[in-house]
Amino acid sequence: MRRKRSHSWWDSLSKEWKRHLLDNCGYSEKSVTEENLSSVINQVLCITHLHLGGNYTNAYIDTLEPLRRLTYLEDLDCSFQEFSSFESLSQLQYLKTIEASDIHANDYKYLSGLNNLKIFSVACYRPASIAPLAQLPQLQQLTCELNTLLHEPGKGMEELALFTQLQKLSCGYNKVVTSLHFLREYTQLQQLSIRLSLIEKLSGIEVLNGTLEHLDAANSRLQTLEGIQELKTLKKLNLKQSPITSLEPLVHLPQLTHLDLDEVKPISFAFLKELSQLQEVTLTLMQDVELPDLGHLSSLKSLTIDTKEDIVLSWLGKLTQLEYLSLPEALVEKYFSVIREMKTLRKVRLGGVIPSGEIERRLKEALPLYMVF
């Protein structure tokens, strides 16, 4: 008897493809029989969310051709795979999200007709033009990292300037991104990541006043925060491991709720007195740099302090909403009598390490909400 057309399609698939598709539907290879094969295939053809991440499954694929039949597909993660082209996705009009980190393909022209695509993330070390993606009418979030952008002088940033409708952009890890002037026509951007970029100044970022809520400049080459004071809607700021020494412009951003200054070495933390809305703070305290009383941070839920100094933390008890605290072990010991009275604490770490032994026992006894993570 001649097998059904869908069965023939299934028979043509590689072992790796079958494994991915069956896993997605909750089947093992052994659970598929001649009796239930038609039902299984029907479920496969109706898949809406598919994860093909090769580094998690060790089932590597070199083509996306089988996806032509998955016409209901909405979300696709094809990261860490070895396919060389996006052509097979060109007709999948229900696609809303594509995650494609560490891949071989860079022919983005085949995605330009996906009118419902809202999120596209690529990191591939293979520079190519991303201009075709600017034609996507629904695109809201774009990640193009790991030297994805064209290397010709100015070309990569010229193409970034085309995506004026974006709400979220991650363009770090690109050696051609050296300034923020490509933002001049952006009108809706809420989140911007320039991690590990060569950007030294924030000139041009002021156009995002009124929209930008989250700026991630971790591991960047930022030398100054001049211009950031214009961002009256900014709530989250990550400056981890950046070379900035003056943070005084932050006094003009009292609305900040999240601030990461891990391994940043400012000459003063006095600006923290003005940031009364902070909910999460991470900082590194160097020798001869004073930490002010932070007891006024009544909304603070997470506090991380990395230091080798014997600092004054008697104000900890004023942080009545604190749920997470990370301190060097010596400071936990010194202020244990204060910490044990902080009844909202759920998690305490000693210099980034989960406490054990005697300190853990004492914390469990003292804090009713304390949990070991």
Structure report:
With about 375 residues, this protein is α/β, with parallel strands linked by helices. Among the domains are: about 1-115, Leucine-rich repeat, LRR (right-handed beta-alpha superhelix), CATH 3.80.10.10; about 280-373, no CATH class. The chain contains 8 helices and 14 strands. Strands 1-2-3-4-5-6-7-8-9-10-11-12-13-14 form a 14-stranded parallel beta sheet. β5 (about 140-145), α5 and β6 (about 170) form a beta-alpha-beta unit. The model has no long low-confidence stretch (mean pLDDT about 90). Keywords: Leucine-rich repeat, Repeat.
Q: What is the fold's blueprint, element by element?
A:
Elements: H1 5-12, H2 15-25, H3 37-45, E1 49-51, H4 54-57, E2 75-77, E3 97-101, E4 119-123, E5 141-145, H5 155-160, E6 168-170, E7 191-193, E8 214-216, E9 236-238, E10 258-261, E11 280-285, E12 302-307, E13 324-327, H6 329-334, H7 336-339, E14 347-350, H8 357-366
Parallel strand pairs: 1-2, 2-3, 3-4, 4-5, 5-6, 6-7, 7-8, 8-9, 9-10, 10-11, 11-12, 12-13, 13-14
What's this model, at a glance?
Helix content is 16%, strand content 15%.
Characteristic terms for this protein:
14-stranded parallel beta sheet; 14 strands; Leucine-rich repeat, LRR (right-handed beta-alpha superhelix); 16% helix; alpha/beta; single chain; 15% strand; 373 residues
* Tally of individual helices: 8
Strand content: 15-25%
Termini separation (Å)?
58 Å
Low-confidence stretches: none
Sketch the major β-sheet: 14 strands, parallel
Instruction: Report Rg.
Output: 25 Å
The CATH level-2 architecture of the domain at 1-115 is identified as: Alpha-Beta Horseshoe
CATH class bucket of the domain at 1-115: Alpha Beta
Order of helices and strands: HHHEHEEEEHEEEEEEEEHHEH
How confident is the prediction overall: mean pLDDT?
92
Multimerization state:
single chain
Query: Portion of residues in helices?
Result: 10-25%
Strand order, sheet with most strands: 1-2-3-4-5-6-7-8-9-10-11-12-13-14
Query: What's the CATH topology label of the domain at 1-115?
Result: Leucine-rich repeat, LRR (right-handed beta-alpha superhelix)
Number of strands: 14
What is the assigned CATH homologous superfamily of the domain at 1-115? Ribonuclease Inhibitor
Shape descriptor reads globular
Question: Helix/strand/pairing class, anyone?
Answer: alpha/beta
Keywords: Leucine-rich repeat, Repeat
InterPro entries: Leu-rich_rpt, LRR_dom_sf, SDS22/Internalin_LRR
